[in-house]
Amino acid sequence: MSSINYSEKIPNNVNLADDRALQRALEQWQPNFLSWWGEMGPEGSHGYDVYLRTAVSVDAGGWAHFDYVKMPAYRWGIFLTPGEQDRKIHFGEHKGETAWHDVPGEHRANLRRIIVTQGDTEPASVEQQRHLGLTAPSLYDLRNLFQVNVEEGRHLWAMVYLLHRYFGRDGREEAEALLGRRSGDEDNPRILGAFNEQTPDWLAFYMFTYFTDRDGKFQLSALAESGFDPLARTTKFMLTEEAHHMFVGESGVSRVIQRTAQVMNELGTDDVAKLRAAGVIDLPTIQRYLNFHYSVTIDLFGADHSSNAATFYSSGLKGRYEEGKRDDDHRLNEHGYRLLDVQDGRLVEREVPMLNAMNEVLRDDYIKDSIAGVGRWNKVLEKAGIDFRMTVPHKAFNRQIGTFAGTRVSPDGRVLSEAEWAANEATWLATPQDRAFVASLMGRVAEPGKFANWIAPPAMGVNRQPVDFEYVRFN
Ligand SMILES: [Fe+2]
Ligand SMILES: [Fe+2]
């Protein structure tokens, strides 16, 4: 089961050829996917040869094969991590029962909703990033962008397989609709807010892949615990791809900071105007981008108090991050969780049943994980002898979803009046001027081994190739 059959029209390790009706349905969806890619995939890229990895096996080590590929010919397919024998549901009311290999009737609507919501984020991010190739700071970065894009396309395939295989006609309609919505479209937008924002420049791209792809990691990790075994297995394999996306983000921001720090030391200044004149992105602007992407991303976890989240957990559809490593009863009926609330202009804690706080539980795990990487960015500043430190804002800052929607809170967690917010917003969130400045630095660097002035080269290349390898051939 773990080897992938590439001789078929749709590469897969799910014995697709044994289910003719399913195979036919997916083969009908395939050209629609390709025309979506042609229309909404990376702009102008269709003739390029790109040094990409393709999955050759779903086994833990060495699943990737690297070669030049024209992206429309990328072998998108259906890959599931091999199943465990006699796997049991390990949380919620069905704990101890055999994992489901088909969709239980009573959970059908919720499971479909979970799969569609996850599936919708995948093409959305490709749409958000589709112009970035025109301004890539190097061939190395351009290749990484394209790798992320083709893998998000494959993640869409992963969810579409589940819809086609397990949800009949409704599933096929949902799969069509996933190609119909458009990021940022007024009439037919993507489902979640952050996936309708723009990713207009490369600093935004690195922040997105650091913060928002990490939301992907946490959502997928929670689904990898699912009692619905096919969902658990498909999201497990998606997680192996997600790791690279977050690497692109973390190393990307790190390289931007490294370059800025270098120029600060060369010029002996932290003066924003002087640094901008020298063509690097000043640290306060990087911090404002961080504040934006972080706050928009933590909204993706949903309302802090949610009966849907309780149902998803209790019915065994969606677990916690690393559910299997926790040593409580995995039912949580008796557990409480402390949520933040606003009372008389102050943030206060209140205790609620943990089941109703499952979104917050996942968000808090996410927050811990994202802070770790910010610490690594600060090491770059420390090493350069610069005092500035990046921080993640308070979790109530700039929220649109849940308890804090409509409350103005500063990055350090003070509840503000509308006037205080308005007076300070431009120091906390990237302004149109910041974005225009960053945009002014963007321009394609297409010579192997050359990098735009505002970013440091990476420490090493892809797949042990040198940094000056020709990662993309434009032809
Ligand atoms: Fe993804
Ligand atoms: Fe991703």
From TrEMBL:
Q: Which GO terms describe its biological process?
A: phenylacetate catabolic process
UniProt cross-references to InterPro entries, sorted A to Z: Aromatic_CoA_ox/epox, Benzoyl_CoA_Oase_BoxB, Ferritin-like_SF, RNR-like
- Keyword Oxidoreductase attributed: yes
Q: What is its EC number?
A: 1.14.13.208
This entry's Gene Ontology molecular function terms read: oxidoreductase activity
Q: Which domain of life is it from?
A: Bacteria
Query: Does this entry carry the keyword Thylakoid?
Result: no
Question: Which keywords does UniProt give here?
Answer: Oxidoreductase
Q: Which GO terms describe its cellular component?
A: cytosol
- SUPFAM superfamilies registered for this protein in UniProt: Ferritin-like
Q: Cross-referenced PANTHER family, in alphabetical order?
A: 1,2-PHENYLACETYL-COA EPOXIDASE, SUBUNIT C, PHENYLACETIC ACID DEGRADATION PROTEIN PAA
The molecule here is called Benzoyl-CoA 2,3-epoxidase subunit BoxB
Which classification does the entry list for the species? Bacteria, Pseudomonadati, Pseudomonadota, Betaproteobacteria, Burkholderiales
